[in-house]
Amino acid sequence: MPELPEVEALRDFLTGHLVGREVTRVLPLAVHVLKTYDPPPSALQGRTVTAVHRHGKFLDLDAEGLHLVTHLARAGWLRWRDRLPETPPRPGKGPLALRVALDTGAGFDLTEAGTQKRLAVYVVREAAEVPGVARLGPDPLAADFDEARLAGLLAGERRQLKGALRDQGLLAGVGNAYSDEILHAARMSPFKPTASLTPEEIHRLYEALRGTLTEAVERSRGVAAGRLKAEKKSGLRVHGRTGEPCPVCGDTVREVSFSDSSLQYCPTCQTGGRPLADRRLSRLLK
């Protein structure tokens, strides 16, 4: 799933390729993708893109006050084309879900692999009309997001750190992969209760949160849209690296599986050398 760094890189890429260009066609090709009907996608046609914004994991194309807001979900992606095919695509064929064409002949496709279709597109007058955008917590890379802000957010939480970091209503933009990376950098168990955090641990978590995301954004900046997935994977230290040596201490990266996802961690760096129990079978370690 694209998370804050990848969506920020897409925002930067699209700003350079879309702003100042006229939208000539918005063509939904999958019945599930469009979540709004008023205004219709055709209302974007003839408008000039004036800005591209990011709200957590949401991309927001502002076309003279009308917004095309996209959430790529788990298996969605944006594919830029310098020259779109002249023949319109056929609905229901392959992973193509929506196409946006520009006056230059260029444009982009939104695609989604797999059988679970969760990619979502909204055409709205204000981005806050999208329910997922309206409920977002603060952006952890915002200039005013300081350590005290993080401490205040976690003070009212009584759950495990992994879940807190992934909650879009608490923090916008962090998902499964970067929550693993942040907790590894902070040297904390994913199952550590938020209520038990000391001021020193809050400081470590804040530094890891800002540092991990900032580094990932800088690493992705300037990378073409089609290469962002590979760039993300290459920069991950523990997420998706079960069985590999931890790059910090050399211990074996371990995994805890869930019904529809998994997390990865280093026992030496994060849990005092103790393997975490599978949450489906036994009580979790703190």
From TrEMBL:
**Matching PROSITE patterns:** FPG_CAT (PS51068), ZF_FPG_2 (PS51066)
Q: Does Cell wall biogenesis/degradation show up as a keyword for this record?
A: no
> Transmembrane among the record's keywords?
no
This protein's cofactor list reads:
Zn(2+)
Q: Keywords of this protein's UniProt record, alphabetized?
A: DNA damage, DNA repair, DNA-binding, Glycosidase, Hydrolase, Lyase, Metal-binding, Multifunctional enzyme, Zinc, Zinc-finger
Q: Cite the FPG-type domain residue spans from the record.
A: 237-271
Family from the record: Belongs to the FPG family.
**Protein's recorded name:** Fpg/Nei family DNA glycosylase
